[in-house]
Amino acid sequence: MITDKNNLETNQPLLLKNAFYYTESGFKLGHILALEGKIAAVYPEAELPQLSTDVLVYDVTGKYVLPGAIDTHVHVREPGWPEREDFFTGTAAALAGGITTICQMPNTQPTPHDLPSLELTRQAAKPKILCDTAVYAAAGYDNRDQLAVLAQTGICGFKTFLQFSEQHITEPQYITVQNREELRELLAASAATGLRHFFHCEDFILINRLEQAAHRAGAEDYSFHYKTRPDATELNAVQQVLHAARKTGAKVGIAHVSTVAAAAAIRRAKADGLDVTCEVCFHHLFFDDSWLDKFGPLAKCNPPLRSAANVAGLWPYLLDGTVDYIGSDHAPHLPAAKQAGREQIWLAPSGIAHIELLLPLLLQAVNEHKLTLEILTELCCVNGYKQMGLYPQKGCLAVGADADFTVVDLAKEWTVNSAAMQTKARANATLFDGLKIQGAVEAAIVRGRLLYAAGKVDYQSAGYGQLLHCHQK
Ligand SMILES: [Zn+2]
Description:
By secondary structure, this protein is α/β, with parallel strands linked by helices. It has helices at about 85-95, 115-125, 145-150, 180-195, 205-215, 225, 230-250, 260-270, 285, 290-295, 310-320, 335-340, 360-365, 375-390; strands spanning about 15-20, 30-35, 40-45, 55-60, 65, 70-75, 100-105, 130-140, 155-160, 195-200, 250-255, 275-280, 325, 405-415, 435-445, 450-455, 455. About 55% of the residues are buried.
């Protein structure tokens, strides 16, 4: 439907006809009218309205209509490295994956660590974004005095890496801490703002020690990457953050939890009343370390792909409320950089560019009865907005909310072809080629505009996406 018939240029009203749409009390059949970016009316099935001819009618019979999905963990490489992924291609890829809001991670160049550098991220995004975008600010020991002012700008939270050996971290002083004392001081500063503080949790001291030992032992095949980052490296770091959160009263969030041990620790902390959120990224739910053995640099990410026992063991935590939401950790790199790790895996940058597969793989999991479509919707389309302070403007199919929709087809079978992906890093996604998936994204609609449908992105809508002001407190 992305043709001359789309409603972009005219901002035409849109009616989703015969929509089987999500509500907190289950899916309902009806018709949803979007007008001037908002949901203007929701009609019961039997009350299809008489509409003027200028309304674009999109018949979604047989499909499911979800609140537009949010990806809480996206690395668009601007500012700094637009050749890896810029805001145009990054948000086009998001839409093709049915994502209508992305949360942009701050490990860019410059690192958004104060008002001027944060403004550079916004300026880079503004003319290019197709979907709506919220941004994280970076928090490190050296910019702890900036957190109070950054907290007033509508960011979705702070992000800190508990490891700084990564090549893509260019200003570590603004996005890492060196030790427990710095961590506690930094968290005291974020606690005073009331915003949530998100952490990449890996114990870099232990990792460095294990890497050196592996090099000495000549254990340098592709398993080097996950063998030098065992489960304990995540658990140690998570426990450091939870401990510092208890001491400071900070609200924390653990990004991309990849092990059962860490998920269990977070479950216990939640039960004890700690205000901590838990994100899981979808590759840790579907791909185990055998993918790293097979595909080396293309399957290299941090935390690494884990044992099959961890992959299977994370699923119960999706169902019991431990996991708050699912992100992608879409992390594009230049193909040449990935290729450099073919012989020496430690040379490859970490990250997989696969945002377009997040919802399809989870839809397939619904077909396999690993979770319900209701739980998928909460994890991908509702809870992230609540945590980022964007609900009920988004994440809610009710009159007055933003008319963001993700339309999905649970029955459709298709085969992944990386060449057809929107991401600039599609050459790094060949590991997924040939993967057969039952469950597809049919359309993505942002504030009433149909920006993705029938496999096509409306490229003319660059700049239509809005920078979101989060009211997280
Ligand atoms: Zn990440």
